[in-house]
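Need a sequence for this fold. Nothing fancy.
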């Protein structure tokens, strides 16, 4: 039996997903000063800040199979381009900006 594991609790479909450590880290990031052209990645609500950086230039979205299905690409400053699987130029965009995330 695993000790110190807390099962989610809630009423009906409302499940308590609070994670105090993540909330504290999110609050620290959320309270930091943003600079122009900052990218912020958020969890379920506006107080759940997962990541913030002015250095992000490509955002990859993967499907349930782990395959890149959409990308948001910083073209210059605050001008971004969006491309998704099925676009006419998807293979070209994927070859230029895609990353297999192999560590």
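Here you go.
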């Amino acid at each position: 039996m695993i000790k110190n594991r807390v099962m989610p609790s809630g009423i009906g479909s409302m499940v308590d997903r609070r994670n105090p450590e993540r909330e504290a880290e999110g609050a620290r990031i959320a309270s930091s000063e943003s600079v122009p052209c900052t990218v912020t990645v958020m969890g379920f609500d506006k107080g759940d800040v997962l990541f913030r950086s002015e250095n992000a230039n490509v955002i990859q979205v993967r499907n349930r199979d782990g395959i890149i299905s959409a990308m948001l690409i910083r073209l210059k400053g605050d001008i971004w381009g969006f491309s998704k699987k099925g676009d006419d130029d998807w293979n070209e965009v994927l070859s230029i900006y895609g990353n297999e995330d192999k560590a």
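For context: The radius of gyration is 18 Å.
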